[in-house]
Write a structure and sequence with these properties.
Blueprint lengths: L7 H8 L47 H9 L3 H11 L6 H4 L5 H18 L3 H8 L10 H14 L12 H14 L18 H4 L3
Length: about 200
Amino acid sequence: MLRWQIDEQTARAAAADRWFPIKGSSPQPQFGEDGKNCGFNPRSWNGRVVQPASWPLDPKCTPAQIMNQFREGRYTQGLAMVACWGGMGRRPKAVWGPRKIKDIEETLRACATSIRETQSVECSWTMLTGLGDGRLGWTAIMTSKTLHFLCRSLCFEQNPPAAIDGAVIRRVVWRLFWNSIPPGDRPKGWGDGGTTRLRLIAGT
């Protein structure tokens, strides 16, 4: 299991009776598991991955294929699939931009090593969201999606980071949660500032 530094104010708010209930008898399949709405074309991503590339025979940005790319050490290929899976291909500059592909590969490799050795994403979060010193300067959304699959590829399946998205987590879940808490008890936002609330977003 991953080690998490829990934000106590968020934990108290999440445990309160006023928090809206999440109903369900079993987990829903993760988005993209069926691979039907993928549209992943390796030729359109080859310019953003370390060469020579090695894609699956039937490449699709499914969770299983994403994790296998990371597991096999093909980090920029895994990243390309994460970007396709999460709809981030529309904003490639935010992920790749002026960054060198080999630097992205090495940063993701360093993240995998750090997660494996520390059982925590704290250092990796800084490497991916921070600025300067070889850090990538990504948003919390892109970072959370990448770390979600990277952690799972390392067998941290029980409590991985939530893959944050704007449409559901920020615009629906966060607003419902925030509005259910009296102003004086409200925790900090689930923004680009850190990892302390990622586990609570996932409800784990």
